[in-house]
Design a protein that fits this description.
single chain; alpha+beta; five-stranded antiparallel beta sheet; three-stranded antiparallel beta sheet; 9 helices; 8 strands; globular; disordered N terminus
């Protein structure tokens, strides 16, 4: 295969010495304190390390069964959904695979998280959402001017996850300073470029955590300018079929939107797929969701896409397997 492909898929050769971390990014959705898992507030790091998925899932399941309620209200329903998602993650965990989710409920400000949400993993094309958000913010501040061609590249980068459009935008507006803004402005404090694969900083060789993707989605929905937010929300709701998985599995009734990323990487333990998703679902984009999955070697892109999508679907009461479009390796 060639080294580059249309869409958000990129192959690395067998000689690459890339440390690929498989993590499925958590989703930012609100959950109750009694629902299990860990809680944190945007803008503040988690005070304690993420417990193992197995222990967390068992605790959540026990909590759900040990405290029945006479009638299950909306909070009870959401708690059961979190428990179902946690149990699913625990069942699909494996050696040399990292799957995690962060969900924040914007109506309450609470966040539920499960899995290794602080583990750095390759972003694949989810970083393109940060690129677009930063470019729009700088344009509105009068720091840069966008041409019609730039705006078209923004459209295709978000809609199709187009690689060539992303490269042109990175060449025009990217670099170390852009990554620094992702950390300082968006709160993606764990994000960093991995040197050794290109002569200079490049968007395709970046790692972040699931928590970082959750912070990015929170910035888009709560701090970006109204017109920029409207553009980004519409673009994420209008993605092409190759991105209709991940948060998309929340179902049409929840009006989801997402920016997905998929790539094939080489790690010290072998070659493997990376499947990530970040987005929103619910009335008025109520729930922010981020999931990262660094898939174990010998598994397929379809397995990764279905696993990430089933996690997202279960968070919104959609039974597994969720109905999705699996991206093709060549984009």
């Amino acid at each position: 295969m060639s080294g580059r492909h249309h869409g958000s898929h990129r192959y690395r050769g067998a000689g690459a010495r890339r440390w690929v971390v498989v993590s499925v990014v958590a989703v930012a959705v609100v959950a109750l304190l009694g629902a299990g898992g860990l809680w944190w507030t945007h803008g503040r790091s988690a005070a304690a390390p993420t417990p193992s998925p197995q222990r967390t899932g068992a605790r959540e399941a026990a909590s759900a069964s040990a405290s029945p309620t006479p009638s299950c209200n909306a909070d009870c329903t959401q708690r059961k959904r979190y428990a179902a998602a946690a149990a699913y993650i625990d069942r699909h965990g494996a050696t040399n695979a990292y799957l995690s989710v962060v969900v924040t409920d914007r109506s309450t400000g609470k966040t539920w998280r499960h899995g290794p949400t602080t583990h750095p993993g390759w972003t694949a094309s989810t970083i393109k959402l940060a690129m677009a958000t930063d470019i729009l913010r700088r344009q509105r501040a009068g720091e840069i001017s966008l041409t019609a061609a730039n705006r078209h590249d923004l459209d295709t980068m978000l809609n199709f996850s187009d690689e060539n459009a992303s490269d042109r935008l990175w060449k025009a507006f990217g670099g170390d300073d852009q990554l620094a803004r992702f950390r300082d402005v968006f709160g993606m404090t764990g994000l960093h470029f991995v040197p050794g694969f290109t002569d200079g900083t490049y968007w395709g060789f970046v790692k972040c955590t699931t928590d970082d993707l959750g912070h990015l989605m929170h910035y888009v929905l709560t701090r970006s300018a109204p017109d920029d937010r409207a553009y980004l929300v519409a673009a994420m709701r209008g993605v092409a079929p190759n991105q209709q998985w991940g948060v998309w599995a929340a179902g049409a009734a929840n009006r989801p939107g997402d920016k997905d990323g998929w790539s094939f990487e080489t790690d010290t333990y072998g070659k493997h797929w990376v499947l990530n998703t970040v987005g929103f679902a619910g009335a008025d984009e109520r729930f922010e969701v981020a999931v990262m999955f660094q898939v174990q070697p010998h598994s397929t892109i379809a397995y990764g896409a279905h696993t990430v999508s089933d996690v997202c679907g279960l968070l919104f009461g959609v039974p597994a397997p969720a109905k999705i479009t699996v991206p093709t390796p060549d984009g």
